[in-house]
Structures are given as structure tokens and as C-alpha cells.
């Protein structure tokens, strides 16, 4: 991947509010950040996929080659449909998580029931499997749509110059936290 290649990284931040702040960051492989967009999704809702797609549309960046999403269940189990997101943005979509996990199904069953559970389980079960990717001296777990596992691992490594968190996701997470704090302080 060329040094000027760009990724859109999307991360979120929420606390006691009913809305989670989403941040999308366009970042070049060489760590230059050249775009931000903010949005929100409902905590415990089902609108994260649409909200992430809206960030893509807002940024309107044809030069972005890949979409990186921090996890698949932002905002308290607002499960992201990676395939639908891929169809909407027309680029590879990679979900990156940072901890080993037995999966979300037990937690979903504990927190939801009826139609709310069924909808989340359908979306969750349709996700591609997580693949372990060693990055620098750390391990991340990647789900990929629109690209094979080897190319997904290459993209994650290309955008992770140090540590284990890809730069677009690291910056998006910091910006989402700052925006949430700003919003919580009354936007003064």
C-alpha cells in the first residue's frame, strides 16, 4: 500500500447519554490526518450501520481506499452490519477489535429479548469470522468484507505504524471522546 493511501477510521464514545458520538477520521498511511466528520448513533439502538455510512457520505472522499471500524457493537450493542456498510461505501470494510473474546452472543442474550435480540443476532451471525492479526508486538482481531484475509491484514498493518491500534482508529477514538466531553459540558 502506497504511503499516500488513505483510510477512514470510525470510533465512538458514550457515557450516560442516549446518543453515542461517532467520529470518522481520514488518515494517510504516513500518519497525516486530513479529514474529520462527526455523527451519532443511539446507545442500545440499531442505527450504527446507517450512522457510519452517513459519515462516509459526509466526508465524500473518493481517495479513501478502506473503511476501518472499531469493533462491531458500538454504543452498547448497536451491531454494525459490515456487509451492508460495504455495499453502501463500495470499499473494503474492516472491523478491528483489540481483545480476544468468546463472541457477543452470550452478552446479547443477557441484555436483549424478543425482536430486539433476534435482530441483533441476525446481524451478528451474518458477520464474517474474526481473524487474528499480529501487528508490531500486539494482536488485533479483524473481520473483513470486500477483501480477503491476507489483504485485510496487510491494510491493518499498513495503517499501524506503532503499537496495535491503527492510526485512523486511534485518532478517531481520541476525537470522539473529546467531542463527547464537549457535548457533555453544554457545548459552551
TrEMBL record:
InterPro entries linked to this entry: Endo_dU (IPR002802)
Top-level division of the source organism's lineage: Archaea
Entry similarity comment: Belongs to the UPF0215 family.
Identification of the protein by name: UPF0215 protein EI982_09165
Native source species: Haloplanus rallus
Amino acid at each position: 500500500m502506497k504511503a499516500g493511501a488513505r483510510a477512514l477510521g470510525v470510533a465512538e464514545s458514550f457515557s450516560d447519554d442516549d446518543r453515542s458520538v461517532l467520529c470518522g477520521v481520514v488518515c494517510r498511511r504516513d500518519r497525516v490526518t486530513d479529514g474529520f466528520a462527526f455523527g451519532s448513533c443511539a446507545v442500545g439502538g440499531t442505527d450504527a450501520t446507517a450512522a457510519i455510512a452517513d459519515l462516509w457520505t459526509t466526508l465524500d472522499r473518493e481517495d479513501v481506499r478502506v473503511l476501518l471500524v472499531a469493533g462491531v457493537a458500538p454504543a452498547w450493542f448497536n451491531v454494525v452490519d459490515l456487509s451492508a456498510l460495504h455495499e453502501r461505501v463500495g470499499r473494503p470494510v474492516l472491523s478491528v477489535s483489540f481483545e480476544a473474546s468468546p463472541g457477543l452472543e452470550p452478552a446479547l442474550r443477557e441484555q436483549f429479548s424478543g425482536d430486539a435480540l433476534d435482530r441483533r443476532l441476525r446481524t451478528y451471525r451474518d458477520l464474517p469470522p474474526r481473524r487474528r492479526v499480529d501487528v508490531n508486538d500486539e494482536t488485533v482481531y479483524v473481520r473483513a468484507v470486500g477483501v480477503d484475509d491476507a489483504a485485510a491484514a496487510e491494510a491493518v498493518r499498513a495503517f499501524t505504524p506503532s503499537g496495535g491500534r491503527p492510526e485512523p482508529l486511534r485518532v478517531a477514538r481520541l476525537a470522539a471522546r473529546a467531542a463527547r466531553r464537549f457535548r457533555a459540558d453544554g457545548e459552551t
